[in-house]
Amino acid sequence: MADEPMITVVVPTYNLGQFFKDSAESLLKQDYPNFEVFLIDDASTDGTGKAVDAVAAQDERFHAVHFPKHEGVSVARNYGIDHASGEFVTFVDGDDQVKPAFLRMLVEGFAQGPADVVTVGYTWGRWFESHGAKQGWQAVSKRAMFDAVRARGDEIGGYVWNKAFRVSVLRDKHIRYDESLTLAEDLLFTTEAVVAGDGFWFNPAVLYDKINRPGSTIHSATMAMRQKEQAVRRQMDALGDKI
């Protein structure tokens, strides 16, 4: 196991109930051994914090972190970047589920050649049932990667949860989540990582299941939040001009 690169998994949680238990169970079933998981309880009030502790007690690779007050997903993810021991880092939403090969395939992607960002396929309800029809690793140019991140509904997309990032690049280039954002923070982060990175690989094998949960941020976004998203997209376009 020591010869295999470590990958860090950052899992923000907040009042997720049974959704978190199902998500954690999918991480406990990973077939890749060399990983660590930060389960970050963002001051939950529904018992999620106790569930986080219970999972961490089952496996020493899982670390429970409890924020004293609610900070938001960006603060939680930045905590993971700051404390990661892995060569790579990925971000799993605490109400989603991953296939047993999720971490193994992400690490495998970095072995395909020079790579700073690796992406795998996902499902999101009925929206993307056809994703994953093709298999195998594909090199992606920087411009194509940027365009895929910029596009809505693309099988690569601007999401962080179907990707892994090289930690040294994030730290050296000071790439962090904008903690003022509650929507589209992943779009901006992924765009900055692509602009800063060199080498991108994609495997459309479906390894991440995005769960539609009532009350999630994407389902409860306000007009002000949507306006911020449009501002983020303008920032993304400006970054794209540098490619």
Automatic annotation (TrEMBL):
Coiled coil: none annotated. GO terms for molecular function: transferase activity. The keyword Transmembrane does not apply. Residues 8-154 form the Glycosyltransferase 2-like domain. CDD domains: Glyco_tranf_GTA_type. Pfam families: Glycos_transf_2. The keyword Iron does not apply. Keywords: Transferase. InterPro entries: Glyco_trans_2-like, Glycosyltransf_2, Nucleotide-diphossugar_trans. It comes from the Bacteria. SUPFAM superfamilies: Nucleotide-diphospho-sugar transferases. This is Glycosyltransferase.
